[in-house]
Amino acid sequence: MKIIIIGAVAAGTSAAAKARRNNEDAEIVVYEKDPYISYSGCGMPYYLGGKIASVEELIPRNPSFFKNKYNVDILTGHEVLSINTDAKTVMVKVGMSGEVFVDHYDKLIIATGAEAIYPKIAGIENPHVFTLRNIVDVKNIAAFIELRKPKHAVIIGTGFIGLEVCENLVKQGIFVTLVEQLPQVTPGLDDDMAKYVQTHILHHEVDVITGNGIAGICSDHVTLTSGEAIVADLVILATGVRPQVKLAEKAGVFLGNTGAIEVNQQMQTNIPGIYACGDCIEHYHLITGKSIYRPLGSTANKTGRIAGDCATGGDLEFRGILGTGIFKIFDLVVAQTGFTEREAKAQGYDVIVCHNIKPDKPEYMGGKEMIIKAVADKMTGRLLGVQIIGEEGVDKRIDVFVTAITFKAKVEDLFHLDLAYAPPFSTTKDPVMYTGMILDNAIQKKRPLITANDLNMLMKSEEKYTLIDVRIPKQYEKGHIPNAVNMPLEQLRQISDSLDKETLTITYCNKGVSGNAAQNILLNKGFKKVYNISGGYKHYSKIIK
């Protein structure tokens, strides 16, 4: 049996390695049009910032490695031009010589990956405009910085690649302006969480322009759609990627709703004997089962392994993804999994949302605050998604939430997790457990929450409400929500009888705990409808300006 694999980065090489483990007798050939294989694309921004000394560190394996260890032939500089599914052949062009030849396969695995999106912008072909998709790209950017010594960079797009590049250019002494067409940075987050990220970026003397696009690029500046000119002697396009599917589509391979290759759980396409994996395929969401496109190196490795297994008679199946992601911008870590509030509502869920502000470990052990936004289905109590922003401990918590969502946990289950505890690592009630407690209180114990955004809308309406700040007077005087009356928690039991129990009442403290205590007091005293502000005044003051 002969297996041909098109593409030799994460998915293609994973497929080759797994296929060889299953079948020692198969002939396995991998064609890769670029000069580099199996590289760490996610590490490229850190090479630009000097954290990685040599680009070779990003390329741990070469064709000789695969030949020696797996007896797999990887031919770089070989571009597959076409696939003949009837004859089971591929036409291959050798880059250096231009020679074209035909090769035969019994099984074919398509791992053509994704390509950078080039927006239709005048001047995009200028020599100081770059994308960051592969090793050639990063070497070109590094060489440009070394030779031209740019002082001002404009990065178009504020996804995780754009922000990682931003940090690393700043470390090189380059002044950076971020331009985002959408009204917020980090489009994958909800707008309230994105504001934390934007504030942090601004503190590092980076200019941030949102709600604006690029109309044109000149040699020394870019022009915004608003007409403003921004100095730029280096421009990085970080506007996303799209699947490279032209070769597959031309051969009759079906594409899915997302525009990527449609595969089943065993990575099979509609054509017998042809599999696909990596950034060129669409995935399905673990919660809804619907198709999505979320290219990521970890998923590419996973789907490559499945394709290699199934092409050699195995029975591995892809179980779907949650769209989990994590990145660092300066000293801030941003992570997300599952649905955002915006996405959950778009899917038709009646959601409950909480903002939990807690340190990753006790303050006496140097704990740093993180904010956890969790989204749950109000009807079933199922956890739907989580976003976390903080300096430390974010990666640990997001992975716990990923596991919980994967196994369809309800919010009440989070409190019962037997998580590891010692002061150097966590608080006695871990922030994960606390998040479950808050949401369970809201859903099961009838202790409802109101978000800062929803409160802002209420304040603009004509509905009557009472807003109670239960902090001490000194905190209230330093800053409070408009129209709030100060009733310190210690006095609330005595003075609550003066309030109308029929009027909608909203309590808040600094982060939410004392606000919840006040909510309990009022509900137990017969108040009909009492809400606690999610995340308290600290969260409200961050996102409502």
Automatic annotation (TrEMBL):
GO terms for molecular function: oxidoreductase activity; transferase activity. Residues 461-545 form the Rhodanese domain. Gene3D superfamilies: FAD/NAD(P)-binding domain (3.50.50.60), Rhodanese-like domain (3.40.250.10). Its cofactor is FAD. It holds the Pfam family Rhodanese. InterPro entries: FAD-bd_OxRdtase, FAD/NAD-bd_sf, FAD/NAD-binding_dom, FAD/NAD-linked_Rdtase_dimer_sf, Pyr_nucl-diS_OxRdtase_dimer, Rhodanese-like_dom, Rhodanese-like_dom_sf. It comes from the Bacteria. Keywords: FAD, Flavoprotein, Oxidoreductase, Redox-active center, Transferase. Belongs to the class-III pyridine nucleotide-disulfide oxidoreductase family. This is NADPH-dependent 2,4-dienoyl-CoA reductase/sulfur reductase-like enzyme/rhodanese-related sulfurtransferase. It comes from Pectinatus brassicae.
